[in-house]
Amino acid sequence: MLVLAFIATVGGVVLLTALDQLGKDRAALVAAFLSVVAAAAAWEATGRASDTAEQARKTAEVVARIERDRWLAELSPQFEFTLTKEGDQAARLLVHLAGPDALGHLDSVTVRIGDDDYDHTPTQQRLGFTDPLGPTPEQIAAHIWGPFRLRPRVNEADDNGRELTFTDLQVGRGRPLALDRTYPSSWMGGKTYDMWQREYEGHPLRLVFTCRRGEETWKVARTVDNPDWRPAEPQQPSP
Is 70 exceeded by the pLDDT of residue 102? Predict the structure, then answer.
């Protein structure tokens, strides 16, 4: 606004000077010049208005994204778990969708068994050497580094017991999943089942859920306590 006022003031002075010194004909030329200046000022003002509108649009997009993220967070699936031992080397995990009520249902849920946080690549491979007797990167990735796996090929679990997907889970309902205790692989240098399970004693079962409803997707990571892997000791009869 200050720029426009300055332009108008200068224009007025120039016009008056032109009228006094140059006459009406030359004053007309000056007036035409001032019209061009005014048009330029109007163009500048229009550009500023356009910039303001663009900034407002970007602000609205940010606010909409924040609101959408908040809405997705409020609808994030809430799971409850019950793990029951079935013998010494098996268990059943009940996955219960407890809420929120507004979620209603999930179209599909992919359950994936997670690994521990350690790098299990052999030292030779980390140094860039090839060990013909060691595991391949594919074998290391396929092995489950934890106390449990899904029972392979049961409830559509994959061959390694790493992952499965089930559909149409309503809030307030659950799905039972069959689990097996994991074993050491043959390339682990003679490590026994007891040695392997002892390494994961007290370590939880790690689960990652990929939940879908329509076009929305949630990824939820949870842990479940690992019960004692050792067989229960027989109770002595009362005297």
Answer: yes
What ranges make up the beta strands (E) of the chain?
A: 78-85, 90-99, 105-113, 148-150, 163-170, 174-181, 205-213, 216-224
Enter the tokens of residue 74. 């409020």
Question: What pLDDT shows up at residue 131?
Answer: 78
Distance of CA 105 to the CA centre of its chain: 20
List pLDDT tens digits, range 144-191: 999 999 999 999 999 999 999 999 999 999 999 999 999 999 999 889
- Find out whether 118 and 175 touch, Cβ atoms under 8 Å: no
Place of tokens 């809420």: 99
Q: Which residues contact 188 (CB under 8 A, 6 or more apart)?
A: 196
Asked if residue 164 lies in contact with residue 150, where contact means CB atoms within 8 angstroms, the answer is yes
Q: What is the DSSP string of 44-77?
A: HHHHHHHHHHHHHHHHHHHHHHHHHHHHHHHT--
β-bridge mates for residue 95, sequence order: 81, 175
pLDDT at 19 over 60: no
CA atoms within 13 A on the CB side of 158: 12
3-class secondary structure, 196: helix
Q: Do residues 117 and 133 make contact, with C-beta atoms less than 8 angstroms apart?
A: no
